[in-house]
Write a structure and sequence with these properties.
Blueprint (H helix, E strand, L loop, with lengths): L3 E2 L19 E3 L3 E6 L2 E6 L10 E5 L11 E3 L12 E6 L7 E2 L3 E7 L10 E6 L4 E2 L4 E3 L13 E3 L3 E3 L1 E2 L5 E2 L9 E4 L1 E2 L8 E4 L5 E4 L10 E6 L12 H4 L20 E9 L10 H7 L2 E18 L9 E9 L1 E4 L5 H5 L25 E4 L9 E4 L3 E9 L2 E15 L10 E4 L3 E7 L24 E2 L5 E3 L5 E5 L5 E5 L4 E4 L1 H4 L8 E4 L5 E4 L5 E4 L10 E4 L5 E4 L5 E4 L3
Parallel strand pairs: 1-19, 26-31
Antiparallel strand pairs: 2-3, 3-7, 4-5, 5-6, 8-13, 9-10, 10-12, 11-13, 14-21, 15-18, 16-17, 17-20, 19-21, 22-23, 23-29, 24-28, 25-30, 27-28, 29-30, 29-31, 32-37, 33-34, 34-35, 35-36, 37-38, 38-39, 40-41, 41-42
Length: about 575
């Protein structure tokens, strides 16, 4: 897990940052934080005879920004392939009190006696009460009044305890100097700070005689990010109300539309995203901010079709469905963003290490349709799965819908970061029901619905509805693929219009038992596709389903004018 950013001293310049990205600014609650690589060369130890090489650099802070110390780089050459970086900060209005100029600078070391080509003096800052220094400053030669107008001490309220690297950046061993010195840099191995980003400044800390620094002097920055919106949280009520609940128009879900979907954008700092093409520093330079696109939509979890009425009676079937709650999949999300997101029911869905947005309750509630009564529901909760049990009355259809959030991440230049995540974290789950025209709770499979055979002239068949024969042994269905099919009670195919017209059934939009006694199938724009007759039949002709499964058109005198078995 990424608890802190440790800005690398050197990086390979594999990507040249664009002009717009060179500023590398992110915004915490109290500070604007910028990564820079613009320095003045103060000193290097050439000529000193010291065992190790070092170059000391003074950051050039942009207007309005302040430094936290100078850098020590363990080499002489500073080039484009291995560029050192540090951060500078600017307090936001109202946070100016969190930075303070030092009371004074105290001499700690100079290079007297080393024989170095240039002179050096190092000074430690004495800070006001309640403030600490993260680093020190260096000057090219001693002075009685050292200063660095851009240097600032920082409030104890925005730092956390850190540790020292096991090895110093440099010491003056074998230099022959009159004084000893060691230059050190901090590291961080502590816990994450809630709603904060822990970061190291990369500046040096000096000690006399190359001794290890006091642990009380090791600090890391802890910048607060309390005001970021949590992409995993519940949508605000006004936005959630814009997502239209799914409505059933037949015994099958025809799919959602843009009315069932809403998109929202979230801006997040770079450190919550793992970008496969950049390291940390390159991310900060190229895309200090990322945009998370969240698309929220209703999706069908499962459905139950109890419209067949092959068995008479008023009893209801139990419908059991399991729903996943939490993060479904994740790819190329930072450990601080995706991998630590809990998928345990009722646990947090939050961003770490910043933990923004607080706790999001992942429990599920179901809303019941007013179309007809559902009863006897119960909930069984497991770590990732919630099982809902509902009773679906005979002659009806029911479907359970769940809100799904899909997340995509985009860089500052608009390019998409590979990978995505899908989360099921909202409490809004809709249990919707549909009953056909004429359905009656006290007689759900009565003649009015349980087939309605014989079907009178002037009847348009309902797509997806099962018309059961009076014997209950067969049913007819105008399927969603356009086919008109007869099946037995077990659901086995007996006859279909596809046997007559082939694939043309896919173009059928309506099937009508016309008032002239003809059974006609039409396509888009009422275009003719098929009919049982080419001439008008006697008044009162009906459509019937025989006990043997034959679909028949029957004259008023009982004569069979047409049969699917012909």
């Amino acid at each position: 897990m990424k608890y802190a950013i440790v800005v690398p001293l050197l990086i390979a310049a594999a990507h040249a940052p664009t002009a717009a990205a060179k500023s590398g600014v992110i915004e915490s609650d109290q500070f604007s934080i910028q990564i820079i690589n613009d320095f003045d060369n103060v000193w290097d130890d050439r000529g000193s005879g010291a065992k190790r090489d070092v170059t000391i650099l003074r950051p050039r802070a942009p207007a309005g920004y302040y430094t936290l110390g100078h850098l020590a780089v363990p080499r002489y050459q500073i080039d484009g392939r291995r560029t050192p970086y540090t951060i500078v900060i600017k307090p936001k209005p109202g946070s100016e009190h969190m930075l303070a100029a030092p009371n004074r600078f105290e001499w700690l070391y100079d290079d007297a006696g080393t024989g170095a080509d240039r002179d050096l003096a190092i000074y430690a800052a004495e800070c006001p009460s309640g403030f600490v220094a993260l680093g020190a400053i260096a000057t090219p030669g001693g002075t009685d009044n050292p200063s660095d107008p851009s240097f600032r001490c920082i409030s104890r309220s925005v730092v956390v305890r850190a540790q020292w690297d096991q090895k110093s950046i440099w010491d003056d061993a074998d230099s022959g100097g009159r004084h000893g010195v060691g230059l050190w840099r901090t590291t961080y191995r502590g816990p994450r700070t809630p709603n904060a980003f822990v970061m190291l400044s990369n500046v040096f800390w000096p000690t006399k005689d190359a001794s290890t620094p006091d642990t009380e002097d090791a600090w890391a920055l802890s910048f607060a990010f309390n005001n970021l919106n949590n992409p995993f949280g519940e949508l605000p009520r006004d936005e959630a109300s814009q997502i239209e609940r799914p409505k059933l128009t037949g015994p099958r879900w025809e799919g959602g539309s843009d009315k069932h979907t809403i998109s929202r954008k979230y801006e997040v700092p770079f450190f919550v995203v793992d970008d496969p093409i950049y390291d940390y520093v390159e991310q900060w330079l190229h895309s200090p901010k990322y945009t998370i696109n969240r698309t929220v939509s209703y999706v069908l979890v499962d459905d139950y079709d109890n419209t067949g009425c092959a068995v008479r009676g008023t009893e209801a079937d139990e419908f059991s469905v399991s729903m996943e709650v939490g993060l479904e999949k994740e790819s190329n999300w930072s450990a601080s963003f995706g991998h630590s997101v809990s998928t345990t029911l009722g646990a947090e869905l939050s961003l770490e290490p910043i933990g923004i947005g607080g706790s999001v309750n992942a429990s599920v509630t179901a809303e019941y349709s007013a179309s007809f009564g559902f009863g006897g529901s119960s909930t069984i909760t497991n770590a990732r799965t919630i099982t809902k049990l509902h009773k679906v009355p005979k002659g009806t259809y029911a479907a359970l819908f769940q809100r799904k959030s899909t997340y995509e991440v985009f860089r500052a230049d608009g390019s998409r970061v590979a990978g995505s995540a899908t989360a099921y974290s909202d409490e809004n789950h809709v249990f919707e029901g549909w009953a056909p025209p004429g359905w009656n709770a006290s007689n759900p499979c009565g003649t009015a619905f349980a087939g309605g055979f014989p079907i009178q002239g002037g009847t348009t068949l309902v797509r997806g509805q099962r018309y059961t024969s009076n014997s209950g042994a067969h049913y007819m269905e105008f399927q969603h693929d356009g086919n008109l099919v007869v099946s037995n009670a077990a659901g086995s195919y007996v006859w279909g219009l596809n046997a007559v017209i082939g694939d043309k059934h896919k173009d059928i939009k309506t099937v009508v038992m016309q008032s002239d006694g003809n059974l006609v199938a039409r396509g888009a724009g009422d275009a003719y596709i098929w009919s049982a007759f080419s001439v008008v039949q006697p008044s009162g002709t009906t459509l019937d389903l025989a006990p043997n499964g034959a679909l028949q058109i029957v004259h008023p005198n009982g004569n069979i004018a047409w049969s699917s078995f012909q």
